[in-house]
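Q: Hi! Curious about what Pentapeptide repeat looks like structurally. Here's the sequence.
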Amino acid sequence: MPISKHIEIWKKGAKEWNKWRDLNPDISPDLSDSNFLSDLYDSEYLYDLPEYNGYNLSNCNLNRVSLRNCVFCDCNFSKSDFHYSDLVDSYCYNCDFSFAQLQVSKIGSAKFQNCNFEGANLSYCSAEETDFSGSKLFATTLNNMSLVKTNFSNTTIEQVRVYGISAWDLNLEGCNQSNIYIEKDHSAITVPTIELAQFIALLVNSSKIRDIIDTITSKVVLILGRFSSDRKKILDQIKNEIQTYGYLPVIFDFDGPENRDVTETIITLASMAKFVIADISSPKSIPQELSHIIPHFPSLPIQPIIEMSQREYGMFEHFERYPWVLDKITYSEEDLKTIVKQIVKNCDKSKN
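A: Let's find out. The predicted structure is below.
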């Protein structure tokens, strides 16, 4: 049957289209190269946008079609081919894309809400600001996709393949992720999240990334302390002085990421540091921070310092038993330059 005949049946509406599909189960309709906004939709109003409800578009040839600015509700696209198609700014609600082939299609700014992408292939699709909220991506292939500001809120992402993806500023609120596969040459690494997949793939496949991490861990110095106005001034001076020795000082005086508590973030920073400077003057949160760092990082020198007019808090004595906790240094604001020189000497010696 010529493509024009398929289009004629389509224009009769969902009821007639679906009836014809039921009567001709062996026919795979060919709507390729069609524009669903103009070719398949007649309207007397110039700016009227089409809304398609309940159409059976399974096993169709939809290659190179344009669905721009069209609305699809409760439509079945399963096992259809969408290669090189344009779905930008389309809106699909409660639609079935299971086992559909959407490779090399444009889906930026499209909305796929509560849709099923089980077994679908979206390789090489560009998905900037695309909305997959509430959808199901199970055993879906996402290889080489561009995911920028993509909305995966309340989405299930499980057993998907993500080799070569670019993922930036994703919305993953309420997203359930598991078993994310990084595949290359039929080998796979499994990680729990999309964001981690991108990082691990870079780490595994790029010696330059490993060199960067080695550089970071040889330069970063973590500075801990209390951040009241008077104490923060001291820590800033230490930071500025440490920089003159070629180190990269990090003062933890910012809020932790939304999905992690402060202690977890400090542990992450400690794992990247060459040594830690811990100002135990007027302690507040530092006892808890050190209790999570010192016992678990035996190769990380910890240099405690304290303002000369103060005494260490009671429980600190316990930490002094660890060989990698160096002898504490007392200081006054006037001799910080000399103290930093001593800190660097102590920590370099301890590392060697």
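A: A fun detail: The chain has nine helices and 17 strands.
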